[in-house]
Specification:
Layout (H helix, E strand, L loop, with lengths): L4 E5 H11 L13 H17 L3 E5 L7 H6 L6 H4 L9 H12 L2 E3 L6 H11 L4 E4 L14 E7 L2 E5 L1 H8 L6 H8 L14 H11 L2 H7 L4 H14 L21 H11 L2 H12 L3
Parallel strand pairs: 1-2, 1-4, 2-3, 4-5
Antiparallel strand pairs: 5-6
Length: about 280
């Protein structure tokens, strides 16, 4: 089924491409291009399979925003322990160059992550929205029938709608952030409440309706109350960044044929670029 908007978590898809394509894939001068080629081909497949009318890519301008770390010091601490792989780092600006030359909108906002850009776009977009991301925090945006998440798993992209969030976690999609805060989430560095696992978190949400109501009605110690207040501000994607929706499509592709030709020659990615341009030109 075609969607009006396909919103891509660029960093998530880039890392997936980097680890999914052998690092031996290289360009004319021996430079690694596995992430570049893998990302462009993944984007092409998504356009062909999901048939969006408009498309935009969000980027992480800050992998670990200081304001989130100030609230939860352990927030995504693994990003410090496991920085961007050396073979991937030089490929990221190449991907940005290729997207710009072809004409795919890519946006990042200072001090924020891709999830915040996508959340803001989702709030602004008219029609149906499909979000491509491996970040479960974006499950909080799921809203039938308008917004769903395409979540990468071993078998491909799982379509996560409200029923799927409930099947997996026992809570509505809009309360996934509450669930993650209560249960804890190692990938985000969230400790959760002591003694609260998945089942207990879902039960607490069912009983109280969410963390806001728990803060009002539940018997909580000072430390638990403080944690819940801070963690909810960290986990919930920002919905009101000072950005608008990008155009999402162009009258013609590529936007800058000369720039594409230069990149194709330098990087050895003619096939990947041609496939993406053809897919974009065929968008509804």
């Amino acid at each position: 089924m075609a969607c009006d908007w396909l919103l891509i978590d660029g960093s998530s898809l880039i890392f997936r491409a980097f680890y999914g394509v052998p690092s031996s894939v290289s360009g004319p001068n021996g430079q690694p291009i596995n992430a570049v080629r893998g990302f462009l081909d993944a984007l092409t497949r998504l356009i062909v399979e999901r048939r969006p009318r408009r498309l935009a890519v969000a980027s992480d301008q800050d992998w670990r925003p200081a304001w989130r770390v100030e609230l939860i010091p352990g927030y995504k601490a693994h990003r410090v322990a496991e920085p961007v792989p050396p073979l991937l780092e030089p490929q990221m600006p190449v991907i940005a160059e290729v997207l710009r030359a072809i004409g795919v909108d890519q946006v990042g906002v200072a001090d924020h992550e891709a999830e915040d850009v996508i959340a803001t776009w989702s709030a602004l977009a008219a029609g149906t929205v499909e979000v491509v991301s491996g970040d479960r925090d974006l499950f909080a945006l799921v809203q039938d029938p308008r917004v769903r998440v395409l979540y990468p798993e071993k078998g491909g992209m799982a379509v996560v709608d409200e029923a799927e969030v409930t099947r997996r976690y026992g809570v509505p999609g809009r309360l996934y952030a509450d669930f993650a805060v209560l249960r804890g989430d190692p990938s985000d560095g969230l400790p959760g409440l002591r003694g609260v696992g998945s089942g207990r978190a879902a039960a607490l949400i069912s009983r109280y309706g969410g963390v806001a109501q728990m803060l009002r009605d539940a018997p909580l110690g000072d430390a638990d109350r403080d944690y819940l207040e801070r963690a909810m501000r960290v986990v919930q994607p920002v919905l009101d960044l000072p950005i608008g929706l990008p155009p999402g499509r162009r009258d013609r592709y590529p936007a800058d044929p000369a720039a594409v030709a230069t990149l194709v020659a330098r990087q050895g990615i003619r096939g990947a670029c041609d496939r993406l341009v053809t897919a974009l030109a065929g968008m509804g």
